[in-house]
Amino acid sequence: MKYITEELLQRITQSTTSEGYSFAEIQKAEAEFGIQFPQAYREFLQVMGKRVNFFQGIDYSMYDLKLYKEDAVKYLYSLFGDIGMDFLKEDDIVFVSGQGCNHYYMSTSEGENPSVNFIHEGMRKLEPVETYESFTEFIKQMGNL
């Protein structure tokens, strides 16, 4: 693994319970959605994509990516009207959804370890809020690793 390094993997397994998807399951999901996931996200899915205790109470199933994106677009529409409909780009993956108003997303065109942005409750401006410089940094912060 390139992004979920041995050091990070040790910290994850010491502090959390996790379960991942098989490589075949990930490939099947990519085919279903017609996209290739960034490498760092693929590694996350393999190590802890099914279950990780620092994501309790939020939704992050790779099988619901389309639903998360639809929910994020609806939320943006509720805040900003029609202009909110075009905020997320075609190559954006909304991979975490919480309570219908908090969404984390990344762009598949930003390389293997893309930055992670946040759509959140109470947004006042329709602009990306970059919260993590990379997907790996997002995992480290969310898991307090």
Descriptive account of the structure:
By secondary structure, this protein is an alpha+beta fold. It has a single domain, classed as SMI1/KNR4-like, CATH 3.40.1580. The protein is 38% helix and 17% strand. The chain is built from 5 helices and 6 strands, in the order αβααβαββββα. It has helices at 6-15, 23-33, 39-48, 65-80, 135-142, and strands at 18-19, 51-52, 92-98, 102-107, 116-119, 130-132. A 4-stranded antiparallel beta sheet has the order 3-4-5-6. The protein has a two-stranded antiparallel ribbon with strand order 1-2. The protein is globular and about 45 Å long.
CATH topology: SMI1/KNR4-like
CATH architecture: 3-Layer(aba) Sandwich
Regarding CATH, which class? Alpha Beta
Determine the mean pLDDT: 89
**How large, in whole angstroms, is the Cα Rg?**
15 Å
Question: Going by CATH, what is the homologous superfamily?
Answer: SMI1/KNR4-like
> Tally of extended strands?
6
Helix content: 25-40%
- The backbone outline, from C-alpha atoms, is globular
Proportion of beta-strand residues: 15-25%
Provide the structure class: alpha+beta
What pattern of helices and strands is seen along the backbone? HEHHEHEEEEH
Low-confidence sequence ranges = none
Strand order of the largest sheet: 3-4-5-6
Biggest β-sheet strands, sense, barrel: 4 strands, antiparallel
Number of structural domains: 1
* Terminal-residue CA separation: 17 Å
- Helix tally equals 5
